[in-house]
Predict the structure of Transcription termination factor MTERF15, mitochondrial.
Amino acid sequence: MAIRVLSRRHLHRALSSPIQITPNPPREFQSLSGPPDPQPQIPLQSPEIAQFNRHQIAAANALLRYGFPRSELLGFIRKNRFLSDSTRSDVESCVRALLSFGLTQNSLTSVLLNCPRALQLGFAEEWRSALLGFGFSAVSPSLISRVLAQSGKFRIEPEDFCKGARAMRSLGFSDGTIIRVFEELPAAFTREPVEVGRRVEVLVDFGIEKEEVDRICFEFPTFLAFGVDGRLGPLFQEFRGLGFSLNEVKSVLLGNARLLLSMEAGEMSRCSELIRSLKCRAPIKEKILSKGRLRASTDVKLRVDFLCKYGLIKRDAFKVLYLEPRCILYELRDIEKKINFLIQNMGFTVEHLLEFPEYLGVSLDKHTVPRFNVIEHLKSIGGLGFDVQFKHFVRLSRLKFYNLYVKPYPECEKIFGGVVREKEVRPRHPPGLWKMFKPKKFPDSREDVRNMKLFVESLV
């Protein structure tokens, strides 16, 4: 009997048409040996479905029974044409195999959407056998889910994965690091993989142990895709040229490998030069350098990148840090609060920091917020006849701001935080102390008087 196939329009109408289904609340599968409880199905007896490809309808019914979202079903069937040759039992066998790995309902849907090949017979089992045969200590459901998702996105075969993992294990990588690299850098497991060994040699040649290399690669596996001659090599040469010790570099790499390895050649030199050329009070500079020049340079790098996220170019960000070195000591969350208050509440732009960088050095709660509240109150009652500029918030002393904006309006004293009293100048010494240091007076003798007279007469 000839098989007639409906058009895609009929398929869409069939899947989207209302079907008499008694909804069942979702519940966990209690047994994987038998079929699950009945789920919504597409009736083959419908006149609109009778001429449709029975394999695709069977696959769709099987997926619906196992909780596949109905909204995604039409596109999923359309994209994966291999389902037109799969029987219902094949699809159910693949789904049961995935569920036997311990996958949940949500993870099962995610795996199928990211890796439709999991519905091909033997594909999931082949991956599981490859992982177990390679010697991984445990194959958890989350591991299977992540591996299948990556293999579906980048078309990585089990033998390619094993080949790349074998090469990484020879470099001293742990199982966790290999999986981490597979998730972040799947290009290392393709048929033409990235040469991971050359990147590791750069770290080893600098003096970093293999165990430390494994930790660095686990934290920041993306650096394994960086060029050796154009990036990693010049970067470590720069570290040597700046005189950073091995212990300093190790400490920063193990603490924040992403920050240090993501630097471009010349960037560390610029940060180090800023630290060297700072002109500030000695206690501030000593505190900046308390953890070493390399840590201070990385702190500069963090704050420069943070300011650039708000729209400043790197040259202007370096200028702000040079003019206000206290920013290097402050936490990023404190700087973020100040910049957000500047933009969202005060209505100024981040470019105002170039002219008034000291805004980032003063206290937000004790200095800026009280002044802003006073100005907002005066605006609401019409007490200001001019626009308040940003310098009034930053550069006016507390006493001058009080005399100009608070003193004429007594109700603003509570908003500002109290009355500002002029400091009394107290004498350094107790009264009457000067009398103790008054030189002793001796009476003039007759001989002294005669000598003075002779001296005066000689001048005439």
Notes: The mean pLDDT is 79. The radius of gyration is 38 Å. The CA atoms of residues 98 and 124 lie 7 Å apart. The chain has 26 helices and no strands.
